[in-house]
Design a protein that fits this description.
9 helices, 9-stranded mixed beta sheet, 253 residues, 23% strand, alpha/beta
Length: 253
Amino acid sequence: MSFTVVIPARLASSRLPNKPLADIAGLPMVIRVAQRASQSSAQRVVVATDSTEVMKVCQHFAVESVLTRVDHASGSDRLAEACHLLEVSDDALIVNVQGDEPLIDPLLIDAVASELAQRTNCAMSTAAHVITDLPDLLNPNVVKVVLDMHQTALYFSRAPIPSCRDMSGQAWWESGELPAPLRHVGIYGYRASFVKLFPKLQHSPLERLESLEQLRVLWHGYKIAVHTTHFSPGLSVDTEEDLLKVRQMFAVG
């Protein structure tokens, strides 16, 4: 199995300015992410950025990078441009690792790539893990996914799905008799042909309603394979508080 990891790294961030360059134990965060990705089985790891400053940092640490436009509406649009710049073939496998995931598990990257390689009827792959706490199930910032019998996504939502009619408010999944709720993990595998197509697809009403880009994929009839992991993903860095926690983890470990 051959695949490329692309790491979108936008310099501007409303909650954490210059986030890709934030120092984590002596290295910029984008470099930490690239180093973790390099521990996977990927044949190539590339940072896709809108900043010459980030590119210079990547060059200093011998990390491949490409310069993309600054006006992309989403990371998917940046990923599509990166695929064109890298001239990847349509049948190539691409794994999108977020640029704020310095603790990403390399084995999870491999699993998402492998899931897509095996599921030839799917345009994309992603990951999920079992929710164990009721507050997470009820939290709209925790995205949930429901799967079919083939481990293909039926729907993503910020609402608590699935919902158990007869055991409202209880951890019904502890019995093991009913499907456990799953938290979506924001890592994606793509066939390069679909990466290039995705920005051209019409936005869907469900996507706008839930503010979840992956619903555009399902709306247009494409399938998303889901790898269920037993491990919670590493902390992503969205705020200054998250950054302090990650710094402490690197200091200890």
